[in-house]
Amino acid sequence: MDSGNVVELHSVKKMFKVYFDKGFGLKERILFRNRNKHESREVLKGISFDVRRGEAVGLIGKNGCGKSTTLKIINRILYPDSGSVTVKGRVSSLIELGAGFHPDLSGRENIYTNAAIFGLNKKEIDKRLKTIITFSELENFIDHPVRTYSSGMYMRLAFSVAIHVDADVLLIDEILGVGDVSFQEKCFHKLLEIKERGTTIVIVSHSLDQIEQICDRSIWIEEGRVREAGKPEVIHEKYKKSMEESRKERMKEEQEDQAVAEENRKLPKFCCKDARRYGNLKMEFDSIELTSEKGEVRGEFGRDEKIAIFYQLSAKGLTEKINIAFRIVREDGITCFASDYVTMEFVKTGKIRYLDIRRNSVGTIVIDNREKLMEGCYYLDMIVSGEGAEVYDEICRVKEFQIKGKATGIGVCEMGVNWEAK
Fold this sequence. Notes:
Blueprint: E1 5-19, H1 26-31, E2 38-52, E3 56-60, H2 67-74, E4 82-87, E5 91-94, H3 107-117, H4 122-136, H5 151-162, E6 169-173, H6 181-196, E7 200-204, H7 208-214, E8 217-222, E9 225-230, H8 232-265, E10 276-278, E11 284-291, E12 300-302, E13 307-314, E14 321-330, E15 335-340, H9 341-349, E16 355-356, E17 362-367, E18 376-386, E19 391-404
Parallel strand pairs: 3-7, 3-8, 5-6, 6-7, 12-19
Antiparallel strand pairs: 1-2, 1-4, 8-9, 10-19, 11-13, 13-17, 14-15, 14-16, 14-18, 18-19
Helix pairs in contact: 3-4, 3-5, 4-5
């Protein structure tokens, strides 16, 4: 092993048996032998890389590419089928937070138990106890059984223990979403502080911005192999370009099958392949398009642009008052923003007003998105309902669109920030 390295992986391979419907008991194994059918999946196909002392390295790649498996092998939670793994020094992991906690023990008792798992003796734990409790912000609950904790409190305590063991190597797997926003910020700055002290960090995260702020190097893993490694900014651009190309290929395949899929689901041609339709269809959307302010139909918008929703309704003889609503949903299902005409008018005027279908069967909704939504993929939902909240037509994921452009922070949307440092 190179004297400057603290982590070395050479040609590491790992395979898992994936059971379709496994029988665990003896009776099940005898009576239902077919349930033991499985297939072997090679998750890691010869991973090789090293990490220098004091270096922070980010592992990136699509879900299922082998990032978390690699981290667990470094931490010796899993062992490779072939190849070698060498790690120098004490390892602290933020992979399975609170894995050593006992629900009937108090928070204080669990600190001693969990820290001992990381290799600290009682004298070392005594010395760090107050710091761990203070960082977790659980002073008023520390002597309560952890089974009475909320999930957020549980994760706070586990995180606080893991980062105060003075490890030589810190392994992190998608845990920077612990607690509320202020606690997340504190955790992030703590990691920067740990890095400055010379601790070696290996982090798995889908947040490329976080990796760029913490790491010196990114390793791109694809289908169980290292595809490329280097400066985070350079590797991330190539990774995003590859992801965009894959997305376009998927879109092309989806478009080829869209005619059949739409017929099967009885969706209009203007809908995305993943769209879902609800309502009694007494009134329907005849057209929905996302356009620029100039009326150009688009699927991609910059962070400095407004977005317009053009819609056209078929009333089918109805003359009722209606309400139009829309939702902007992130790719993972989180609602980023939703609004409807009736609520908006009530907030502005204090009066309940509906749209007249005879005059509003065609309309445009302009959304001022300038410097709001972060870069990424989003979906549009559209709903038309009556005065009694009867849903006539609701199309979820009717349109997919991309927001392009760098932001100054991380999260769902960007907030205006003014720094007043003294």
